[in-house]
């Protein structure tokens, strides 16, 4: 007889692994499916300094390894597979992957979201070595350094204001001649003496040997190309990119309620609009996407899945 799990979790980032830990610890048969390596975005983070209890400067991979070990210790199965199709409407949920078909009484979607990249040469190679997509995570590393903040929306300007508490100078670089952020946020930025602006400009290339050493700009009106090099004493500077996130929700379009930006809409208990289907972490519509909020989501989702099963499958 084909196995029917109590809960299947799609995604093995911090929210998915936390959900797996809580579900397995509560004696639910639990399967965590991940298309790549466990960890999500945190797996590429050199230092997780803002996660509670991480006082020994644990790296992202270290933290993920502990989460995976805990999951398995309590009996959760973790498998690598890419889910291509889902049937979530029936009481027994069916997930079809490259390697097989999986069935469960409940599903927790924890597929995450990825920062939108600029696509500039050097960006990927220097991520974590001066290039960042999270001011809350990495601002402290650039105390008294110069930083550039790429983007002009609410997030970019808010993060630039946050960065100004640490960096000696923040420059917002925007493709247009005016910001897209809300006027109230713009006013704060314009009044901030640490924040400068470069308009009608895109990043053409990011250069460096092991760390960011220079950034090449192109003026979109004139075509002029300029290169900004790191201060000799500093040796480097920060580049924070805020041009949006891409939620991993293609699989669920037309099958559950999504926001205009493509995130899964849930209530405070992680319920989606489909009974027995929950969402946790960066994939859901929320205001803060951090490891701390992801693990909280995962814990709530697992407990709610257990409560759902108790009522939906009671004899």
UniProtKB/TrEMBL annotation:
PANTHER family: THIOREDOXIN REDUCTASE 1-RELATED-RELATED. Homodimer. InterPro entries: FAD/NAD-bd_sf, FAD/NAD-binding_dom, Ferredoxin-NADP_redctase_2, Thioredox_Rdtase. Its EC number is 1.8.1.9. Pfam families: Pyr_redox_2. It comes from Isachenkonia alkalipeptolytica. Keywords: FAD, Flavoprotein, Oxidoreductase, Redox-active center. The keyword Ribonucleoprotein does not apply. Belongs to the class-II pyridine nucleotide-disulfide oxidoreductase family. The lineage of its organism: Bacteria, Bacillati, Bacillota, Clostridia, Eubacteriales. GO terms for cellular component: cytoplasm. Residues 5-298 form the FAD/NAD(P)-binding domain. It comes from the Bacteria. It is an enzyme of class 1 (oxidoreductase). This is Thioredoxin reductase. Its cofactor is FAD. GO terms for molecular function: thioredoxin-disulfide reductase (NADPH) activity. It catalyses: [thioredoxin]-dithiol + NADP(+) = [thioredoxin]-disulfide + NADPH + H(+).
């Amino acid at each position: 007889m084909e196995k029917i799990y109590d809960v299947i979790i799609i995604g093995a980032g911090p929210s998915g692994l936390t959900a797996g830990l809580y579900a397995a610890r509560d004696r639910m048969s639990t399967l965590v499916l991940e298309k790549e390596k466990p960890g999500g975005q945190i797996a590429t983070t050199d230092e997780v300094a803002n996660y509670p209890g991480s006082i020994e400067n644990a790296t992202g991979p270290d933290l993920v390894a502990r989460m995976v070990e805990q999951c398995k210790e309590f009996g959760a199965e973790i498998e690598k597979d890419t889910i291509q199709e889902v049937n979530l409407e029936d009481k027994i949920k069916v997930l079809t992957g490259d390697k097989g078909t999986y069935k469960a009484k409940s599903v927790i979607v924890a597929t995450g979201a990825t920062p939108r990249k600029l696509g500039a040469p050097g960006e990927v190679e220097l991520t974590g070595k001066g290039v960042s997509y999270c001011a809350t995570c990495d601002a402290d590393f650039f105390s008294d350094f110069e930083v550039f903040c790429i983007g002009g929306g609410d997030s970019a300007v808010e993060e630039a204001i946050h960065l100004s508490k640490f960096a000696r100078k923040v420059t917002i670089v925007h493709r247009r001649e005016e910001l897209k952020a809300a006027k109230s946020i713009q006013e704060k930025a314009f009044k901030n003496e640490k924040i400068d602006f470069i308009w009608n400009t895109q990043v053409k290339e990011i250069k460096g040997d092991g760390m960011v050493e220079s950034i090449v700009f192109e003026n979109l009106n004139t075509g002029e190309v300029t290169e900004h090099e790191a201060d000799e004493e500093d040796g480097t500077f920060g580049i924070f990119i805020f041009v949006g996130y891409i939620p991993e929700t293609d699989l669920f379009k037309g099958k559950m309620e999504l926001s205009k930006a493509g995130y899964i809409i849930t209530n405070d208990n992680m319920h989606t609009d489909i009974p027995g289907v929950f969402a946790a972490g960066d994939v859901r519509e929320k205001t803060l996407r951090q490891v701390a909020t992801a693990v909280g989501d995962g814990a709530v989702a697992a407990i709610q899945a257990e409560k759902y099963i108790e009522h939906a499958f009671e004899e």
